[in-house]
Amino acid sequence: MANKIRLGILGGGGNSLIGELHRVAALINDNYEIAGGVFSSNWEENISFAEEIGLPADRIYKDVDTMVAEELNLPESERMEVVSILTPNFLHFPAAKKLIDSGFHVICEKPMTTTFEEAKILEAALTKSKTVFALTHTYTGYPMVRQMREMIKEGVLGKIHKVDAQYYQGWINTLIHDLEKRKTTWRLDPEKSGMSCCMGDIGVHAFNLIEFTSGLQVKAILADLNYLYPDNKMDIDGTALVRFDEFTKGIVRSSQIATGEENNIAINIYGEKGGLRWEQENPNYLYVLSDDRPMQVYKPGHDYNSDISLDGTKLPPGHPEGIFDAMANIYKGAARAIRGESFNSGEFPTMSDGVRGMSFIEKSLESHLNGNVWVEIEN
Amino acid sequence: MANKIRLGILGGGGNSLIGELHRVAALINDNYEIAGGVFSSNWEENISFAEEIGLPADRIYKDVDTMVAEELNLPESERMEVVSILTPNFLHFPAAKKLIDSGFHVICEKPMTTTFEEAKILEAALTKSKTVFALTHTYTGYPMVRQMREMIKEGVLGKIHKVDAQYYQGWINTLIHDLEKRKTTWRLDPEKSGMSCCMGDIGVHAFNLIEFTSGLQVKAILADLNYLYPDNKMDIDGTALVRFDEFTKGIVRSSQIATGEENNIAINIYGEKGGLRWEQENPNYLYVLSDDRPMQVYKPGHDYNSDISLDGTKLPPGHPEGIFDAMANIYKGAARAIRGESFNSGEFPTMSDGVRGMSFIEKSLESHLNGNVWVEIEN
Amino acid sequence: MANKIRLGILGGGGNSLIGELHRVAALINDNYEIAGGVFSSNWEENISFAEEIGLPADRIYKDVDTMVAEELNLPESERMEVVSILTPNFLHFPAAKKLIDSGFHVICEKPMTTTFEEAKILEAALTKSKTVFALTHTYTGYPMVRQMREMIKEGVLGKIHKVDAQYYQGWINTLIHDLEKRKTTWRLDPEKSGMSCCMGDIGVHAFNLIEFTSGLQVKAILADLNYLYPDNKMDIDGTALVRFDEFTKGIVRSSQIATGEENNIAINIYGEKGGLRWEQENPNYLYVLSDDRPMQVYKPGHDYNSDISLDGTKLPPGHPEGIFDAMANIYKGAARAIRGESFNSGEFPTMSDGVRGMSFIEKSLESHLNGNVWVEIEN
Amino acid sequence: MANKIRLGILGGGGNSLIGELHRVAALINDNYEIAGGVFSSNWEENISFAEEIGLPADRIYKDVDTMVAEELNLPESERMEVVSILTPNFLHFPAAKKLIDSGFHVICEKPMTTTFEEAKILEAALTKSKTVFALTHTYTGYPMVRQMREMIKEGVLGKIHKVDAQYYQGWINTLIHDLEKRKTTWRLDPEKSGMSCCMGDIGVHAFNLIEFTSGLQVKAILADLNYLYPDNKMDIDGTALVRFDEFTKGIVRSSQIATGEENNIAINIYGEKGGLRWEQENPNYLYVLSDDRPMQVYKPGHDYNSDISLDGTKLPPGHPEGIFDAMANIYKGAARAIRGESFNSGEFPTMSDGVRGMSFIEKSLESHLNGNVWVEIEN
Question: Which of A117, B375, C374, D81 would you label with A363, given CA atoms 20 to 30 Å apart?
Answer without folding.
Answer: B375
